[in-house]
């Protein structure tokens, strides 16, 4: 086995909980986020946004705005060249072309000497709109009489091929076997329809950037993003610049959860800067974030499942409709693939429809597409368990996928930890605590693929024996600590002798976005490979110093040593000693890795939640919450627990309160944290975690991504708990107090009438 | 637009600035005085990321106008670790991994310090309700609440020892 693929145990650093290297800056206010950077001569940018859900833009007259003292540049659709390639949608979303496609769609932008002047100038831009009929509901958008959002959109994936345009961008299908035969063989069949509302990632830091383009065409961009290489390539393309002429630096990032994996304001800021010849800072307001960044899909899902009387699933069928806003690309394909991914089902058929509406273009949100599908499937699984009078975790265990199972979406699973995870949940003391009146317990499990992707790191040994590690994946939740741990583990040096930075786009090769729970897996594996290359070079230097062959030197506990008595008797050389001699033994010592990380092991989770439902107000209180999830190997367990807890908390919000509410006029009614209610500290209890470790053979330490799986089960687990507490099956999210109260009262009236 | 000349005290230092009538104190701190530790998460007083102390009262600085700072005493996150000595809350936030992205952290620290100055021995529920004006989207609050409880215990011990 090649050196860089060998597994490593036991660990001395990995699995410990040191303080994060960026911690002091973040508790003292020193850390610089997107909006915290300024430049000499800087202007302030502001964007004019459509107040209409759907409107033709007849003309834009910015002459009065341009004449206002202090205004230095105005940009509109005319400042961006049309595209017909894969960048067309991102361009149209960044700046409206012939039509405004949703409430909040950017129409023009201004750079001025102050925010006050910029705001005044926005009010002077005259846009002549022809308001068009709109549609924001996924089912209504699919009707043949729905207003067409993209007039030439032909549904992909239909057989026979579609000929007329519609709002359905694509049909996806996955599965195997014969579902009709499967349902015929079942003793119990349940079919239900579900709906979920769109939610927002809700990162606390609004999108922010500082752009500076000089008159020779060189550009600099400071931006909060999950992927500065993606930002560079996209912006350079939209602005017609060479990629090498744009250097993008990732700021500290105040949350992303998938929502910062694309561009919104960055090309606009660069265009303004280019036109004004001065740096331009552009920061979204919170209402702009809600109206014009990338929330997730709202969905309509039908699930049908059959089970034999001994508790084996005989068939699973699902139809998923996800709206992704005014452009193709909702994560319905991922929802369809993940629907039955936890279960070994002989007969599966899943069909998904990617639907357009007059809403902002959706962006990824933590395990994109999966939580809604799990909400539906796991709800039916619980009902099946009830009908069979079987423990819901036991039913899941009976059908759980394991190594060698052919997944519902195609590939056969390698080593995975669903069974271990379900057993950990079942064994947890939480699962046997008695419940009081009006209380209910729910369980659900969840799956996420995880991702590897293009990765490039550089590891440099300094003259004093410390190590500088440059990665290209923005650190969104403590990943620099994990990188330091892995480098220190390989090199055999102390954790705090490694410093990890997120390097800018001119300092490293291309790195994919921080997404797909990939960073600790992929940048971590690249770090290990770069460290192993460094060790090889350190051994070469030691061999040269000692005058013995290279292969007669081994690396142990941070020291080069002769491989055995035959190699010669030399006192070991520490990394520090070899580093100090580097200028005389061949110059700088460094290790690099650039690769496409593959074999990211999937991660499974099982959640248990207890709720109390107030029958007078309809309010649901989370009493207790426990998560068991497979991490493969937890590099920094505190931040693994944090990922588990954070995903669950977002799931609580999605299940109980959060929703995009559109009025009849197609405008978003609740673009602020007062009316779009994310969980606060008093809404939640402590969240227990169990880290299951079934090593991923695709990573030298066994690491699996952990960030996304944690948001897959909670919607279903909480719905199952609320249903248990009330005796009413809830199939629509959010289960906000008015909705729950209405259901309770309707049942009261029905019972009274009987 | 008449600009206001304001004299105030920030983290113990006398400070003068000029601002416009409608300018939020948060913008003054961040854009005119270079104190970017307070963050704007919403601009409407809903997220608490811009929390500061104004004459010993916890406020959202996005809801205070710059001219209102005249003659007042302001404390921000930048004053919480004088000469680099971390406040026990700051240390406990690090030890408990009570931050992931860190954008909400300054606001939580300022708010938590205000709580412990009022109530040195808060229950978990009291901490949760006091901090309900500060939004965190990353952590689920578990580790934040634990860090505050732990810091409170340490501060009580220090006080007892003194």
Compile the SSE list and pairings.
The complex is a heterodimer of chains A (754) and B (162).
Chain A (H helix, E strand, L loop, with lengths): L22 H6 L14 E7 L5 E7 L1 H5 L3 E5 L12 H7 L4 E2 L5 E7 L2 H10 L1 E6 L6 H4 L26 E9 L2 H6 L3 E9 L11 E6 L5 E5 L4 H12 L6 E5 L15 H11 L3 E4 L2 H7 L5 E10 L5 E11 L8 H7 L9 E8 L14 H19 L3 H8 L18 H10 L11 E10 L4 E9 L5 E5 L7 H13 L6 E5 L16 H28 L6 E4 L2 E4 L10 E2 H11 L3 E9 L5 E11 L6 E11 L6 H20 L30 E6 L21 H13 L10 H17 L1
Parallel strand pairs in A: 1-12, 10-11, 14-15, 18-19, 25-26
Antiparallel strand pairs in A: 1-5, 2-4, 2-6, 3-5, 7-15, 8-13, 9-10, 9-12, 13-14, 16-24, 17-18, 17-23, 20-21, 21-22, 24-25
Chain B lengths: L2 E8 L2 E8 L4 H8 L18 E4 L2 E4 L12 E3 L12 H8 L9 H14 L5 H7 L11 H20 L1
Parallel strand pairs in B: 1-5
Antiparallel strand pairs in B: 1-2, 3-4, 3-5
Helix pairs in contact in B: 2-5
Describe this structure in words.
Chain A is an alpha+beta fold and 754 residues long. Chain A is built from 19 helices and 26 strands. Chain A has a seven-stranded mixed sheet, with helices on both faces. In chain A, strands 7-15-14-13-8 form a five-stranded mixed sheet. Chain A has a four-stranded mixed sheet with strand order 16-24-25-26, with helices on both faces. In chain A, a hairpin with a 5-residue loop joins β17 (453-461) and β18 (467-471). In chain A, α11 packs parallel to α18 (714-726). Chain A starts with 22 loop residues before the first helix and ends with a helix. By secondary structure, chain B is an alpha+beta fold. In chain B, 35% of the residues lie in helices and 17% in strands. Chain B has five helices and five strands, in the order ββαβββαααα. In chain B, strands 2-1-5-3-4 form a five-stranded mixed sheet, sandwiched between helices. In chain B, β1 (3-10) and β2 (13-20) form a beta hairpin. Chain B starts with a strand and ends with a helix. The mean pLDDT of chain B is 97. Chains A and B meet through α1 and α17 of A and α1, α2, α3, α4 and α5 of B.
